[in-house]
Amino acid sequence: MVFAGASSALASDGEAAGAQPSTTPIAASSTLSATGTSPTPTASRTPMHTSSPSPSVDPEGAERGTALAAVAMLTFKGRAPMTGYEREEFGPAWTDVDHNGCDTRNDILKRDLVDESFKAGTQGCVVLAGTFADPYSGETIEFERGEKSSLVQIDHVVALADAWQKGAQQWDATKREAFANDPLNLLASDGSLNQSKGAGDAATWLPPNKAFRCRYVARQVAVKAHYGLWVTTAERDAMIRVLSGCPDEPLPDGVKVSTTSSSGSSSGSGTIAAPPVTVPDHNSSTEPEAPVYYANCSDVRAAGAAPLYSGDPGYRLAMDRDKDGIACE
């Protein structure tokens, strides 16, 4: 993983460049207070879910379009060996895959932070500072490029090393680079929690902020289904266990379930289509309609759009302080 704004490169998923990812399951845990805030999380090396019974909910019967239903489309089998894994197999960190002039790291910082300031002369690309409502811990972090850059990192929701063991080592270099830079699979996160997660999957690591676990697992399901990555039996059971507590949890905005393959023929398990990446045509005289964007809640209220609900134009998780799906209340 690369520290947001740091000058030195780290491998994805909390591993130092060139190091082999840890095979020890790591879980982060903390207790939420009555106010919904969380103390500084502490890392635990006790694997999650190992003593829990198998889930009794059948994802086949879940409502179509939910994350729980999408779990039924995932293939499950054992991990492949880590042989050959290097961060570099997924391309350089980070690249401008959507050709908007900004690298992926700064794109995600701009998306997930509020009240940002930018480095002069970078056309609004390089984020210097901003406020970050961390979904993993439930805490607010003041990001500042430089010595404090490591406080906010960019997490691969499905870790690159985990993907490598579950199908990605068969991909070509282009697909692996696209995966590593796909906004669907990227979230800004508390740096220490990103490091504690390592290459963990849903069976070995979940965010300490329990209010965010449903959305976190739903995003993992969407990423794995979209890219055709498999899950282990323990991972599948953990996904079902989390989502059974929120059976109506939708897939991330813009991700849709299709029951036909790309060729139009019927598919036995179905596929998940991620929202297409829009690449601006700078040679065209007609600019595409810009998406609704509010820099902060003050702008939302000034536009008369408050409150914003999840799925509304302009809604961003960073403006939803208590992570209840309602921003700028």
TrEMBL record:
Residues 1-63, 251-287 are annotated as: Disordered. Residues 293-329 form the Excalibur calcium-binding domain. SMART domains: Excalibur (SM00894). Residues 27-47, 258-271 have a biased composition (Low complexity). It holds the Pfam family GmrSD_C. It comes from Xylanimonas protaetiae. The lineage of its organism: Bacteria, Bacillati, Actinomycetota, Actinomycetes, Micrococcales. This is DUF1524 domain-containing protein.
